[in-house]
Write a structure and sequence with these properties.
single chain, alpha/beta, 13 strands, elongated
Length: 399
């Protein structure tokens, strides 16, 4: 009987370990695989033969793992496509541990990496699982991929943060006229647009800056000035990729710009513009908190992240491989499906035009309807001993 290898790539989410847990539990009950291993971290761990076995985790440990946010369990990494020498090294590890199937949890780049590996390695099946709070993996029409695991929880996070920002603004707008909050989102405004779910009746002095509706900086400032003149204050929620000046982009090893690691941050640049125009402003930039704060993780998100891990192993057990698993919309619920590697070149997506109120610094009601479906169940996970920080389950320890 052969074994399965699981890896993580790219950024993390609140629910990535729920997917890992779903994979492990499905492997243990599948009868297809004898053992499940993980590269720590990801492909880099595999190439350096830093492999851990996850087969014998207890039910208590798996429950802890399921509710542990971020990637502290087995780590994640960002790498370029492997060269021929690295492919040979990867293949030798595959043979050493009798691996017949590999599951790679990540985003668009991870799916491309997995497709490349499967085309260059013999007798190894690859499957990719989705992971991105940005919701920027899939088709813009949402017919193949309705949402990505992690997105419902980050929406819940920002609904609460907008309420917090409003309370702060109400108390301090005599001197801080504008609060500027920066969300994740390199080239898309799914997260920034989700801030409107905190104010669906549009009663707050809220402006949304979405990369799909990029406006000149002077028009942004004009909109802020108008809001301050009318309401005495303004709350601006902007995607990190919204262009208000040169951020001095720093790229990771896979070639993607890391906005939170760049020389400047978009929110701070916008604050500077406001101050230059005589408007006192303050920035709120939570960064990695958006994708790792367990307090706003929803049970709905956990359940579907776990479910897609189960689905992938079940499909492998049926002899299916070479695909990216997705969560798609069904009439009364969501269901799991797949898109084969040979069906796509690039699955990065942006918001559909129908989701945006172009030029108005807002999203449409259609986008709010979509958010209500994705976040129809915003129950936060129960904060029990299993999900307190003391019970988080890192296999990676340096203490």
């Amino acid at each position: 009987m052969s074994n399965l290898l699981v890896m993580m790539s790219g950024g993390t989410t609140q629910v990535i370990n729920a997917t890992l847990c779903g994979v492990i539990e499905a492997v243990k009950s599948s009868g297809r695989y004898e053992r499940v291993f993980a590269g720590v971290p990801g492909i880099i761990g595999v190439l350096s033969d830093n492999i851990v076995e996850l087969t014998d985790l207890t039910s208590v440990e798996l429950e802890q793992l399921k509710y542990t946010p971020s990637s502290c369990a087995i780590g994640t990494t960002r790498v370029e496509f492997l060269d021929d020498g690295q492919i040979e090294e990867f293949n030798s590890i595959i043979e050493k541990y009798s691996i017949s199937s590999v599951i790679n949890i990540g985003g668009n780049g991870t799916a491309k990496q997995s497709r490349d590996l499967e085309s260059r390695l013999n007798n190894v099946s690859f499957v990719s699982l989705p992971k991105t709070v940005d919701n920027d993996l899939g088709d813009s029409q949402l017919s193949r991929c309705f949402f990505t695991p992690g997105f419902p929880s980050v929406v819940n996070y920002w609904v609460h943060k907008v309420a917090m920002l409003n309370n702060e603004s109400l108390g301090a707008y005599s001197h801080d006229k504008v609060l500027v909050a920066q969300t994740f989102g390199r080239e898309t405004g799914f997260i920034a647009g989700a801030a409107r779910l905190a104010d669906p009746d549009r009663k707050l002095p809220l402006l949304l800056l979405l990369p799909e509706d990029q406006q000149p900086v002077d028009r942004v400032i004009s909109a802020i000035q108008s809001m301050v003149a009318e309401r005495g204050r303004a709350i601006v929620v902007m995607s990190e990729g919204y262009d208000v000046g040169n951020v001095g982009g720093v790229k990771d090893y896979s070639g993607q710009v890391m906005f939170s690691s760049s020389k400047h941050l978009a929110a701070q640049l916008l604050v500077n513009h406001c101050i230059d125009h005589g408007i006192q402003a303050r920035a709120f930039i939570p960064g990695i908190d958006q994708r790792s704060e367990v307090m706003y993780t929803t049970q709905y998100d956990i359940d579907h992240a776990y479910g897609i891990g189960n689905y992938a192993v079940n499909e492998l057990s049926k002899g299916n491989s070479g695909f990216l698993a997705l969560i798609s919309e069904a009439p009364d619920n969501v269901e799991y499906t797949k898109i084969n590697y040979d069906e796509f070149d690039d699955l990065s997506r942006t918001m559909d035009a129908s989701f945006i109120s172009a030029g108005e610094f807002d999203v449409s009601n259609k986008y709010l309807d979509y958010l209500r479906q994705v976040c129809s169940d915003r129950r936060r996970i129960s904060i029990t001993d299993n999900v307190l920080p003391s019970a988080f389950f890192p296999l990676l320890k340096d203490y």
